[in-house]
Each structure stands twice: as C-alpha cells, then as structure tokens.
Amino acid sequence: MDWDKLGDRAVSTLSEYLRIDTTNPPGNEAPGAEFLGSILKQEGISCKLYESAPGRSSLLARLEGKGEGKPLILLNHIDVVPANPDNWQVHPFSGEITDGFVWGRGALDMKGMGIMELMAFIAAARDGLELKRDVVFLAVADEEAGGYSGARMMLENHPEELDADLVINEGGYATLDLIAGRSLFMIANAEKYGYWLRLTRRGVGGHGSMPTGQGALDLMVPALARLLENKRPMNVNPTMQAFFSRLAEHWEILAPYGEDGDLRTLERLIEENNLTALPALSAVVRDTVSLNMLNAGVKINVIPDEAEAFLDCRLLPETEGKEFLAFIKDALDDPEMEVDVFMDMEKAPASPIDSDFFRSIEKVILADYPDAVTTPFMLSGLSDSRFFRAKGIPCYGIIPAHLGLMDLARIHGVDERIPVRDVRDGSKFLYDLVVEICT
Ligand SMILES: [Zn+2]
Hints:
single chain; 439 residues; alpha+beta; Aminopeptidase; 4-stranded antiparallel sheet; 14 helices; 18 strands; globular
C-alpha cells in the first residue's frame, strides 16, 4: 500500500466531507452518507443505506471474511453539533487545510475518524487481505442527539448485520500533555451514563411587595444550594484505577500508588495533589451533578407559585440510578420537592481491559507510535458505544489524533481541527489494527 498517496487522499477526502453540513438538529446525514457511499463505489465496494427518517441515513459496508469469529465494526457518526461561523477563525464548513490542520466542525467529533476508518477499510479491500472475520464500516446518523435514530435504530432493526465481536469507535484520543515527551493513548473502554432529573417545587404565589418566604423560588433555591454543596463521594472505578496506575509509572506524585497499588493511597494522592481541580479529572472519579436550567416566574413583581430545575447528572457505570436518586433526595432535604427522572440513558458495562482485543489495540499503538504509552480510560460523556456494550459487544474508543488538553474545548466548541499528520498516520494505524485483529 502506498501510504503517502492514501494519506493525501485521506486529507483531501476529509476536507470535502467537512464541507457537507450535517448539523444535528436536524441531522441531514443523507448527503454525508451518500458522499461516503460514492467513495466506496469508486473502489468497487457496495454498501447499504438505511433511512430512519427523510434525509437521515446511516451507511453500512462489509468486507467478507471466512467466518472465524464475528465481525469487527469500524463505527463513526455522520452528524455534528451546530457551529456559529461568527466565532470561528475559518468557516466551520469550509474544510480548510492550513497550518498543518484540517479545520471544520466534525474534524475531531468525528468525521476525521470516519475518514480514517474509511481509508483503512479501502486499503484492506485493495490489498485483498485474507480476512478471518468480516470488517464492517458503519457510519451512523444522530449520535449528537442521543443516537436513537442512528446506532440504536440499526441495532434494533438490523441486529443480524451488527452482531460483532468488537467495535472501534470514538471516545479516547492521544495527548502529549500528560506525560513529558510521550504520547499517551487513552483507550476508552467505559463511559458514564446520563441520568437527567427534573425538580419541581410548588409554593405560595403573591405580590412581590409582600414577601412571605413561601414562594416557589424561596423554597427551591435553598434546596438546590444544599444539593450543590453536597458532592458525591469519590469512587475510582477499575478503569480509572488502571489509568492512574499507568500514570504512576510516569508521575512522581503518584509513585506511592505505583508501589503499593492500594486504592486508599490513590484516593489520598488525588486529594492531596488536588487533581480533581481539573474538571476533566473530577468528572471521571465521581458521579456529577450540573444545574443547567431553571424555570420560574413570569413578572418581576409576582411571587411564583411553581419553580422547575433541570439537573444534568452523569453517573459512573457502577452507580445504580435508584441509589443515586436517594442521595439527591437526601441532599435536597425537602420532602415536598418532586424529583422525576426524565431521561435515564441506561448504564452499560465497561468493556474488558484484560482481553486479547484490548491487548491487540495496545500492541498496534506501540508498533505505530514508538513513543506511545497506552492506558484504559473512561469517557465522561456519552457515545454510541453504550448501545453495543449493553448488548455485550466490547467497544473501544480511540481516535488516533493528538490533542492538547486545551484542545478538548474545540470539540463542540470553536475552531475544531485535526492535525493533518494524525489523519495520515491514523488511517494507517486503523489499517494495521484491521490486519492485527482480522487476519
Ligand atoms: Zn462524537
């Protein structure tokens, strides 16, 4: 395989793909799916399009193997979150290639990975690899709105197409910021789940000139303050224990944990070194609560008789919803507060770290990126991986792109971009992974 040439192709194809506006809502993934389909067609590879609603398509293509083991799925999503061009250095749907980056909404999340997977898939076809298992390229709609009209629809309506041994998806990435001079590849084998709550508190309405202290907000606000004061206890789960134990080989401050492997030592070191001051780290060692919406009142001189609050809670895969709900009610300490779970995204078990697949991924990373360090990691956000994990299919999230910790803000933020070099190297890496796992 001429990787120089295929690398060029990956970069120009990504630039073109980024020009297709697949902002969700509404999604409009069909042109994106057709674009991917047209590239496969040029290579003589057939694919199927699945429509969940007009203009909303997912695409599946398959390279047949000998049936020794179930397929490997290369999963990606076509939709992106909205972008406001006024705030960007380049137009978010320009696909501009400049300063060594490909710029655009979706460059990282996750059209860049989609194109790398596509190139790996095409290379596997061109090379006529003797595959022992099928390789499936799956580009889905709707991930950014929860995945219900994309990955979940596909799993529910076409389970026979997606019965797999392994899924590679987004979730993890590489960073140069955590270990001096080394790329740390964080392979996401787990993720938190969303547990969204609506609180309603009724009070006594009246005239704003005569406060009673019994208005809905008078009662809601102190209860919310009690809740926000009351953080969930730290719970470093097995995935994050493995993460910190790998870091301990490189971080002096974690060395005592590296020596004794005692969870209590780790928790003490996290506290003492104030590691949870970093929101990204705080989010992966406990259940979190974010108060994101408040509704009450119609007029400045009217005491409201009802107030509503929405809490974006993110729970560790080890946390039971019921137990968490009891904690919330306890912390609010107001028996008249109504607490409804209006969205339970359902926990999915972590995919195993102690497995041949996980070791294969690590092996290929270490072969392709000689300065790399690998580690499992838990994603604090959501991805389509949860639908597959819930069905017992192991999923690992690793976008082979190098991000600074500050660059994380570009995902769903402004000036999203991916290094050109990573698009090239990542295509080859995913191909090498296919070779390792499927031949
Ligand atoms: Zn994504």
